[in-house]
Amino acid sequence: MSHRAPAYRANVWRRDPGTWPSRPTAPLDVYLFLHPNPALALGAYTALTGRAPLPPDWSFGVHVCRHARLAEFAVPKGVREMMHNMEAKRLPYSSVIIEGWDTYDTDTYDAMREIVTELRGKGKKVLVYEACGRLPDPWFIRSGGKARH
Q: Which of 12, 32, 75, 94 has a Cα at 20 to 30 A from 143?
């Protein structure tokens, strides 16, 4: 998508600098949207693909979270204290980001399920962040591995 067509060059059959390096092995659909301004180019693109839907209303609200190192939301007590404080001070929020919970410990799943059910009962969305592949040392040790320190 460009409003400056002369600035772009593509030749899929030659190995020239600034072009694609090889012959395509599958059918290739190329759409060029050449218009005098970006708004018209975007309009032509969305006429072809459709407009992206708006995110849900709750996603524009206040998201309550704490960094995992503080571990306040890593246990039900901390999440319940936050819920109580938000309600006592009449502060609005649409979601809670629970971070720092030991998601690799199956013994914590019942407590997680309970707190998520409570929050959903209050009309709140819950996002649970986990370690994204950075398993905690206790998990490695229980699994026969060595601590990484």
A: 75
Higher-pLDDT residue of 42, 2: 42
CA 125 to CA 117: how far, in whole Å?
10
Supply φ then ψ for residue 106, to 5 degrees: -65, -15
Q: DSSP H helical segments within 30-149, as ranges?
A: 38-49, 76-88, 109-121, 137-142
Structural tokens at position 144: 């026969």
- 28 contacts 13 by C-beta, under 8 angstroms: no
The amino acid occupying position 135 is L
- The model scores a pTM over 0.90: no
Whole-number average pLDDT of the chain? 78
